[in-house]
């Protein structure tokens, strides 16, 4: 028998028009799959290059192909984490505390992220994508405030401006910039806005997110297809499980980066 945490989550989803599928990925499964893609990316940028004897500028096309495949496939995780952010926003008891937890995770993860992606302890060329989740949360909370407190053109002006601001900050700070071309931060925010705004229209939401993912090098669209198989259930019995997933991100990056620093 599942505990109160799972029961409250399912009841809330039902009240909001959730689908209550009996089969499909639970939230636990979504988090686990997302972490596996993070692990794939971390291994592909740290352990594998050394194992394959690849060096930047090398003409070893076989090794380069393997590394590129690992990186591109890992982008499947983007819609998973965007969806998890929106669900976290929907179900948290305190948006402020949720935001502070994400901000703390982003700050803690920055050095491990830089070590894993650039081999440096500090690198401003790309910031870890958790910062994009913080921006997305702020944007969604601001939109909710505008919808509840403003009307007419003022409401829409705020909604448009805060959305643009969130995307702009992600671009300017190079949040989640991968290979100098894939802006993970922008896609995380964009996907979160789609999942937030179209939550009551499953098929339209998934189609829109899928098209957006396809524009960003195809693989994020695969993640959207995976999400479409989800069911509205936490899938774990203890509240502390979520803290394990918070810790997994920086720990994974650090463990992969340390052997090659």
From TrEMBL:
Transmembrane regions listed in the UniProt entry: 33-54, 66-86, 128-147, 153-173, 180-198, 204-227, 239-260
Region (Disordered): 1-21
Keyword Transmembrane helix: yes
Keywords: Membrane, Transmembrane, Transmembrane helix
Residue stretches of biased makeup (Acidic residues): 1-11
Cross-referenced Pfam families: TraX (PF05857)
The keyword Transmembrane helix is annotated on this UniProt entry: yes
Descriptive protein name: ABC transporter permease
Lineage, highest ranks first: Bacteria, Bacillati, Actinomycetota, Actinomycetes, Bifidobacteriales
């Amino acid at each position: 028998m599942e505990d109160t945490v799972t029961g409250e989550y399912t009841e809330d989803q039902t009240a909001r028009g959730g689908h209550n599928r009996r089969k499909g990925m639970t939230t636990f499964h979504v988090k686990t799959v997302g972490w596996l893609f993070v692990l794939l990316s971390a291994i592909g940028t740290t352990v594998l290059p050394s194992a394959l004897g690849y060096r930047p500028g090398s003409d070893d096309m076989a090794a380069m192909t393997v590394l590129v495949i690992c990186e591109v496939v890992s982008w499947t995780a983007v819609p998973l984490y965007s969806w998890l952010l929106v669900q976290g926003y929907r179900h948290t008891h305190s948006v402020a505390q949720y935001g502070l937890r994400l901000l703390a995770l982003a700050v803690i993860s920055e050095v491990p992220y830089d070590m894993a992606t650039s081999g440096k302890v500090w690198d401003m060329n790309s910031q870890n994508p958790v910062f994009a989740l913080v921006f997305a949360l702020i944007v969604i909370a601001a939109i909710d405030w505008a919808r509840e407190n403003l009307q007419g053109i003022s409401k829409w002006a705020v909604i448009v401006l805060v959305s643009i601001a969130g995307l702009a900050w992600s671009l300017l700070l190079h949040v989640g910039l991968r290979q100098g071309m894939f802006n993970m931060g922008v896609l995380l925010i964009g996907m979160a806005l789609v999942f937030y705004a179209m939550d009551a229209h499953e098929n339209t939401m998934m189609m829109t997110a899928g098209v957006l993912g396809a524009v960003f090098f195809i693989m994020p669209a695969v993640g959207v297809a995976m999400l479409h198989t989800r069911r509205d259930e936490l899938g774990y019995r203890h509240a502390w499980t979520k803290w394990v997933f918070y810790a997994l991100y920086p720990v994974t990056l650090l463990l992969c980066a340390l052997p090659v620093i």
